[in-house]
UniProtKB/TrEMBL annotation:
Record flagged with keyword Isomerase: yes
Pfam annotation, one family: AP_endonuc_2
Domain Xylose isomerase-like TIM barrel positions: 23-242
Keyword Cytoplasm included in the entry's annotation: no
This protein's name: Sugar phosphate isomerase/epimerase
Record keywords, A-Z: Isomerase
Highest taxon above the source species: Bacteria
């Protein structure tokens, strides 16, 4: 089976969804993962397509003109200030664009709250035939594979899954044997990127690499091959933000190099 690749929005975050779709088509991707759930983070653009109807129409036109599909949207963040009505509005819009998955992560230590909230997000997403993929993030509150599994197996939502990011997998020190034991049906796509072999010891260090300086696949010290081989064949999403390289190369060339390095590495 031919490997399929998706371009994650964080890789080209300065590009609105229509532009990133054209870049994805031009550089050889099959899918994109877009970020229309605005979280109000510093310097992060608001791409809420449920409110910006002109941008929604332009996104739909880009999909039709290029054949590039939307795989997923993000981020249905589980936290005290989450807005379920906003999530539903964004889920409905995503379904209109053909998306199949919603990416989620957990940012509160209140276990009872996050279990209940994740269950509700899954219920809302199910109305739009969307699955909810829980990502464990090393500086979040659910930060490793076992914690993510606990959520999935407690909530038991039929449309829930786990999304592995190779950077977070490495930095949470998950063992490959643990990954092999996870039911294969939990996996639908994988975030690919590389990073330095040395794992930062501070939250600030973890965030810096995760948001600003990920490496091309095969360039760093992560054993990506073992992670890929421990999982079923899924869609490979290149999430590889690197601020300095974008300044030097531009978004399109950076996106092209992300994809080419991954293809070279995976053979």
């Amino acid at each position: 089976m031919d490997k399929k690749f998706s371009l994650a929005h964080l890789t080209v975050l300065g590009c609105a969804p229509p532009e990133m779709i054209y870049i994805a088509a031009m550089t050889g991707y099959d899918y994109v993962g877009i970020r229309p759930i605005f979280m109000g983070l510093p310097n992060e653009p608001d791409y809420d397509l449920s409110k910006n109807k002109a941008m929604f129409r332009a996104t739909k036109r880009a999909i039709l003109e290029t054949g590039v599909k939307v795989n997923d949207i993000e981020l249905a963040k589980i936290c005290e200030e989450m807005d379920f009505e906003k999530y539903e509005r964004c889920f409905e819009t995503a379904a209109e664009l053909g998306a199949k998955h919603v990416l989620s992560s957990i940012w509160t230590p209140d276990k009872a709250f996050y279990m209940e909230s994740f269950s509700r997000v899954c219920e809302i997403a199910r109305k739009y035939d969307l699955s909810v993929e829980l990502e464990f993030v090393t500086w979040a509150n659910v930060k490793n594979l076992s914690e993510a599994l606990e959520v999935i197996e407690t909530v038991k939502a039929p449309n829930s899954g786990i999304m592995v990011d190779t950077l977070h997998f490495n930095r949470s020190r998950v063992q490959i044997e643990a990954l092999k034991k996870v039911p294969k049906e939990y996996f639908h796509f994988l975030h690919l990127c590389d990073g330095p072999a040395e794992i930062p010891t501070t939250k600030e260090g973890l965030i810096h690499t995760g948001r600003d300086e990920r490496l091309y696949v095969g360039e760093g010290g992560i054993d990506i091959k073992s992670i890929v081989e421990a999982m079923p064949e899924v869609l490979y999403t290149l999430e590889l933000p690197h601020i300095a390289r974008v300044r030097e190369l531009g978004y399109a060339e950076h996106a092209r190099r992300c994809l080419q390095s991954a293809k070279d590495y995976l053979g």
